[in-house]
Amino acid sequence: xxxxxTAAPAATARxxxxxxxxxxxxxxxxxxxxxxRALTALRLRLPALTTQDAGDPAVALLDAWATVADIxxxxxxxxxxxxxxxxxxxxxxxxxxxxxxxxxxxxxxAAATWLSFTVEDVVDPGAQAVVPAGTRVQSIPGQGQLPQTxxxxxxxxxxxxxxxxxxxxxxxxxxxxxxAQMLLDGVTTGLRPGDPxxxxxxxxxxxWQLRVLTEVEPHPAVASGSPATTVVRWDEPLDLTxxxxxxxxxxxxxxxxxxxxxxxxxxxxxxxxxxxxxxxNYAPPGPADGGEATPPPTxxxxxxxxxPADGGEPVLDLxxxxxxxxxxxxxxxxxxxxxxxxxxVTADPSAAADFALTAATTRLRLRGPGPIAxxxxxxxxxxxxxxxxxxxxxxxxxxxxxxxxxxxxxxxxTRGSTVLVTGSTPDGRPTTQPATVxxxxxxxxxxxxxxxxxxxxPLDPASVRVLGNxxxxxxxxxxxDEVLGSGDGARGNQSFTLLRGDLTHxxxxxxxxxxxxxxxxxxxxxxxxxxxxxxxxxHDRGYVVRIGDDGSVGVLxxxxxxxxxxxxxxxxxxxxxxxxxGPAGNVPAGALSLLPARPLGIRDVTNPLPATGGTAPEGxxxxxxxxxxxxxxxxxxxxxxxxxxxxxAFAGIAKATATAxxxxxxxxxxxxxxxxxxxxxxxxxxxxxxxxxxxxxxxxGRLGLDSYRPLSFAVTVAVLAAPDRDWEQVAGAxxxxxxxxxxxxRGAFARPVPASGVLTLVQQVPGxxxxxxxxxxLGDAPDGDPVAEVLVARPARLGRAGVLPAELLxxxxxxxxxxxxxx
Length: 823
What we know:
- This protein is of the alpha+beta class.
- The protein is about 15% helix and about 35% strand.
- The strands form 12 sheets. It has a 10-stranded antiparallel beta sheet with strand order 8-11-10-9-12-17-14-15-16-13, with no helix packed on it. Strands 35-3-4-24-1-36 form a 6-stranded antiparallel beta sheet, with no helix packed on it.
- It is elongated, with a radius of gyration of 46 Å.
- About 30% of the residues are buried.
C-alpha cells in the first residue's frame, strides 16, 4: 500500500477560549501528548517501524522534539496570556495593556493623620510657637517594623492655652420654681435642720420664699478637684414665679438667719390673772371716770402690734439688745399661718417698760409690703441678722453630646480650624474625633465652642480634652533640589530616574483620587506634569511620570513633537519630591512622637488618631478591574453605574454601590463605599471623592456619601467526614472555605446569606459526606438562637436619623465553628 494514500491524523484542535476565563488554552500539548501524536503518525507513515523503545534513534528523536514542543508552546501560551488584560499575570503586562487605553496603575497612597503639638507653658502660660510646614515627626517602631516619617502639611502657630483645653465642669446654679434643694459653697455654713432659709430674687421684694431646712449635708473637698460644698434640702418646693414675668429669672439670693428673737412683751403675764390694782393702773377710763362703757379687756392695753396710721414704716421692739442686727439686713416675722419679710431701716438700742415688764430692747424701723398688725406679740418668732450665703457652682455630670462645648477658660479659636476632641464614653471607652470649629465666643464662664458636626459618641465631661494645636500630616520624607541630570537639546525623550523610589502620592479631589508630590524644574523654570506626552504640543514644557514594578520613579520628557525637548545645560534638571508611601504608614495612635528637629517652644507631639489611608500600589488583579472602569466613565458621572465606577477607580476605595433614594423635592444618589480590606474610608478621602465627582459633572449637593456598615455573623456547621479522610483536615478545609467565601474580598453590599447557601458550600468541600447547619445568626445575637433561614443585608435607605449606608455580611473568623456530625 502506498503510504501517500494513507492520510495522517489531523492535529488535535486547540480548545476554545470562551470569554470570562482567567487563563488561556494556547499550547500544542504537553510532552506526553506531542510524543503520542508523533508516534501515531510514525506508525501510519512507516508501518514497518514497529518499535517504541525510547532507546531507538527514531523514537529518541521524536522524544527530543516533543520536549522542544512542550517548552516552546508552554511559553507561547504564557506570552499569549500576557497579551490579554484578564489573563495577564505580570504587573508589567497589565501596566502596558492599561496604558493602551490611557490608564496608569494606581500608585500607593501615603497615610495621613492629625498631629497635636504641645507648647511649653511652664514659664509662660501664654507662650506660642511656630511649627513650619514640612516639620518631620517620626514614629517609634514596633517589633519587626521600620520607623515612619510624617511631615506637616502647613504652618501652625501653636499657643500654650490651646494645648489640652478642658471643659468647664461646673456652671452657675439656677434655683427656679420646683426646687427642693440647693448647693451652697463650703462646709462651714453653720446651718442645721430646722433653720429658716430665705430665697429671694434680686430684682425685687417678690416673689420670695422662706423654707425650713430638713437636711444639711456637707461634702468636703476631695483630691480629684471637687470643691467643698453643702447640700441643703426642704420639703415644700419653691414657687418663684413672678406673675408679671414669663420665666423664672436667675440667679437668686440666699440668706441664713443667725439670730432668733422675740417681740418685746411676748413673755408678759396673762392680763386675766392680774390683780385689780394692776388692772386699774393699765385700764382705760371707765364710766365712773367720765369715759365710755366698754367690755372688760382680755389683754394688756396696747399689747397688739400696730402699723402707723399715716402708712409710714412700722416700728418694732425686740425683747433684748441685739447689736448685730444692722440696718440693711433682712428680718422675717413668723407666726402660725403668717410669714412676712422686712428690710431693717434703722436698728437702735432702746428700753421699754410696759406689760409689767422692764427690759433693754432693740428698736427696729422696718420697711416691707406687709403690715405687722396681724402678728401676735406672744406667738411671733423673729428671724434676724441675715447673712448672705454663696451658691456653689453646679457640677456638670451629664454626658457631653451635640455640637456645643463650654471650655473652662477664655480664649480664641479660629473659625474653620480643626480641633481634636478626646475623651471617654460613660462606660469607659476612649475615643477621639476630629472636628471643625464653627464658632467660638468668650463668655463670663469661659469659651462657648460650637463644632460644625456633632460628637459621634456621648462623652464623660471630666474626661474631655479639646486639642487645639492640631495640623494635618502625611507620610513621606521631603527630598529637595535633587539633580536629575543635564538636558541635551539634540536628544528627544530624555528620561531620568529619581534617586529615591516610592514617590509619595496623597489623596486629592481629582479623577483617580491621588496626586504625586513631584516638582521638576529645568533652568529654574517649573515644568508641568502630564498624564501622557500624546496630549502635549511641541512647545509644551511637560513631562510624564512612570513608576516601575520595583517602585522606582522615572521622569520622561518630550521629543519636540509631543512635548518640548529639554534645553541643553549642565545639571539643569532638578526635582523636589517626597518619598514614602503605602500601608506601612498606617501607624497606630500615639506612635508619632519623635521630633528630629524640635521647633523652638514645642514640648512634644503625638498623633491622637491612628494614621489611615495608606494603600499599596495597584497589582495586576486590581488593574484588571480598575482599567476598564476608566473608559466606562471617561471622568464624568451621570448614571448610577458611573457613580459606582468612578468611586471604585478612586484611590482608597475597594468597593462601591450607588442607590437612588427619594428626596424632599428631587431624588438623590447615595454612594456607599468601603476601603481596602474592609476598612472604613477616611473622612479626607470621602471629601476628596465628593469634590472630584462634583467636578466630573454630577449635580452638586445631591450626593450622600458614607462608609459601609459591616454586619458580622456567626456560623456553626456539623460535618461528617469520609472514612478515609482525617476529620481535623476536613474541618480545617470547611472552616477555610467559609472564611474565604464570606470574606470582604468575596462579599457584596446588600447580598443575603441563606442557610442553604452555607450548606451547599460546605458539601462541596472534598471529604465531606454530610453536613448540617447548627447555628447561623448575626454577631450580636446569642449563640442559642435558632438557625436563621436567611441573613439579610440591606441596601442604602432612609432612616429616622437620616440615610443609612448599605450593609455587608461578613463571617466572623473567630465564630466559625465546625463540629463533628455523629451518624
